[in-house]
Specification:
The chain has nine helices and two strands, in the order H-H-H-H-E-E-H-H-H-H-H. It has helices at residues 8-15, 20-36, 45-50, 57-67, 78-99, 155-167, 174-186, 191-201, 208-233; strands at residues 69-71, 74-76. Strand 1 (69-71) and strand 2 form a beta hairpin.
Length: 244
């Protein structure tokens, strides 16, 4: 993908707190993301070498942590993932239209002129309608990619989970759902149970180790409470309750 829309005002708003060098690093990473149509690899040394950023290791790390989300297959940028998905969807529409003989003729006084605005496969975003609002990598996604309740999850729980993600400005993408399911399996939890935990705790994501750490603390406190009880009975008043 060698083309994407760029809204200068939105970019300035999202990066005004960055130094000139930090902004340049962020811009290079975004361009690399769109060019490869893949998340930034977990092993970032090859990326820094390709982008001539080997002298900016600390800045690269800070930018990744602020603007990207670490998942099993690399550093994801939610806006980039959405735009890449839309890019391929439009390209697929263009291919289907091509099989039917190309773009249909424009109909005057059409209530929704965007219906006939097909785009080029090589550059599916080049055609804009008069009522189109520019989208950039920093804008909140207008819709969720995954709108169908996953198997094994109740409609009510999924609705609450989508509402939570929307409030956190995190789209419900297939990649995110796969990550939740995978982490849930590690903790012996179903996808629905993971979603319930996210809703109860206000989490935008989930990691299996969070549950393991919680159980460890609970077991530790249970042991200390037992010792405290025995200490009180035996006259030992120096026993202290340990936290995490």
């Amino acid at each position: 993908m060698h083309y994407y829309k760029f809204n200068i005002a939105d970019w300035h708003l999202a990066t005004s707190h960055l130094s000139l060098q930090e902004e340049a690093v962020y811009f290079k990473l975004i361009n690399f993301y769109y060019d490869t149509e893949l998340p930034i690899p977990l092993e970032t040394e090859s990326v820094m070498r390709r982008l001539r950023l080997k002298g900016n290791v600390v800045i690269v790390k800070e930018v990744l942590q602020e603007f990207f989300v670490l998942e099993d297959d690399g550093w994801h940028h939610q806006r980039c993932d959405l735009e890449i998905s839309k890019y391929h969807s439009k390209a697929e529409v263009n291919r289907e239209v091509g099989k039917l003989g190309g773009r249909p003729k424009k109909i005057n006084n059409l209530d929704n002129p965007s219906i006939t605005e097909m785009v080029s496969e090589n550059n599916p975003q080049i055609t804009l309608t008069t009522n189109h609002k520019p989208l950039t990598i920093n804008q909140e996604p207008l819709t969720n990619i995954n709108t169908i309740t996953p198997e094994g999850v109740s409609d009510e729980v999924f609705k609450d989970f989508c509402k939570l993600r929307k409030g956190l400005k995190a789209p419900v993408t297939q990649t995110a759902m796969n990550g939740l399911a995978k982490e849930g399996q590690k903790a012996n939890l179903t996808l629905e149970q993971v979603m319930i935990l996210c809703c109860q705790n206000g989490w935008r994501g989930f990691k299996a180790e969070w549950i393991k750490e919680k159980k460890t603390v609970e077991q530790r406190n249970s042991t200390v409470m037992s010792g405290l009880t025995r200490g009180i009975i035996g006259g030992n008043k120096d026993v202290k309750l340990l936290g995490k």
